[in-house]
Design the sequence.
């Protein structure tokens, strides 16, 4: 496994300093994380990036790919209504190129609250922390990219699509390959679902009943599942795939509007104006855009020529459901962000947390932030 070289202690201290100010509680997370949970949050395609381990007869696990899910679970288990946590430690992901590190240090902050009253202010704080920590590493070619998964959802609402199609598009918003496949279905008639009658029967059941039926079919056929995927997970994936094929398709005008939205990549003022033009004054989108004016005012410390807006900006993990951001170095490119983060309110509910709870955070890669570091 390829590891990053250590960052000089004085530089690391400068990068860390903005993140530990205030009342942040320092936390850690187990090196081994439940594989199925992470795949459910990030999609099966993420498996290739994870280091998977399994004891004989045990459930599959993976080396910690990041801290956010683990810290969120700890916060929920603590029963606290709000919290501010700082973490620092190694994370592990298989690298797509031979000269990229697979074990690397992450520093980050996660902010949790019981209500959404301060959501925009917390968004601004998380993005500013990421920017300050990244700049502290000494690089002079950094750009803060801003996006918003929630704006995509507002766009979908403004297009007044059939309920099933709208839900499908919102679900794949952070997965470009699946979204492009949906755009390619323009005008298509509903097809035949994969899995045929079995998928149709499962789709009408609760998750528990669907899993029980699938296990019964396996038992009758003498089939043993492989790969660590449980019956509930396989049933859910089969139903989702069937729904994708049988759902109504976009028409040409709707697909064109979505593609134009996905293609926005420019200064924030121009990008927001393009969204206003696309949606022709939708009340829901107008409210979301007003929040963006507040965010941009709060990010005044970032030079205007260092801000870019791409509303479709997403991350490897698709639990982000609001603001997203990345600090990129021109020399490292889009595939190797120096820092990243965003809002993930829905993740707390998916992990069993209380309804209405809010969360936003950021993570920094100090070796990438260091001016003498990654090239």
Sequence:
């Amino acid at each position: 496994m390829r590891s990053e070289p250590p960052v000089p202690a004085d530089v690391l201290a400068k990068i860390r300093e903005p993140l530990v100010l205030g009342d942040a509680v320092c936390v850690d997370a187990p090196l081994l994380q439940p594989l199925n949970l992470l795949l459910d949050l990030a999609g099966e395609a993420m498996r290739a990036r994870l280091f998977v381990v399994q004891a004989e007869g045990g459930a599959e696990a993976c080396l910690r790919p990041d801290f956010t899910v683990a810290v969120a679970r700890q916060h929920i288990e603590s029963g606290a209504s709000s919290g501010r946590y700082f973490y620092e430690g190694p994370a592990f992901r298989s690298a797509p190129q031979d000269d990229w590190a697979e074990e690397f240090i992450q520093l980050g902050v996660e902010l949790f609250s019981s209500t959404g009253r301060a959501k925009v202010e917390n968004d601004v704080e998380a993005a500013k922390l990421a920017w300050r920590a990244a700049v502290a590493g000494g690089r002079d070619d950094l750009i803060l990219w801003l996006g918003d998964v929630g704006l995509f959802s507002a766009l979908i609402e403004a297009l007044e699509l059939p309920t099933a199609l709208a839900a499908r598009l919102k679900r794949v918003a952070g997965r470009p390959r699946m979204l492009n496949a949906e755009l390619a279905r323009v005008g298509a008639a509903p097809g035949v679902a994969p899995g045929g009658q079995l998928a149709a029967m499962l789709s009408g059941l609760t998750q528990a009943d669907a899993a029980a039926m699938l296990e019964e079919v396996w038992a009758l056929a003498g089939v043993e599942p492989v790969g660590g995927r449980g019956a509930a997970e396989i049933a859910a994936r089969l139903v989702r795939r069937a729904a994708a094929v049988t759902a109504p398709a976009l028409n040409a005008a709707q697909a064109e509007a979505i593609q134009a939205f996905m293609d926005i990549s420019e200064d924030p003022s121009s990008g927001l104006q393009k969204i206003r033009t696309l949606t022709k004054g939708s009340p829901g989108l107008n409210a979301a855009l007003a929040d963006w004016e507040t965010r941009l005012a709060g990010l005044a410390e970032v030079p205007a020529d260092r801000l870019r807006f791409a509303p479709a900006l997403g991350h490897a993990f698709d639990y982000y459901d609001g603001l997203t951001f990345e600090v990129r170095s021109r020399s490292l490119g889009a595939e190797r962000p120096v820092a990243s983060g965003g809002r993930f309110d829905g993740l707390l509910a998916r992990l069993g947390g209380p309804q209405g709870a809010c969360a936003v955070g950021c993570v920094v890669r100090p070796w990438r932030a260091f001016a003498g570091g990654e090239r």
The mean pLDDT is 86. Residues 196-246 form one domain. The CA atoms of residues 74 and 229 lie 24 Å apart.
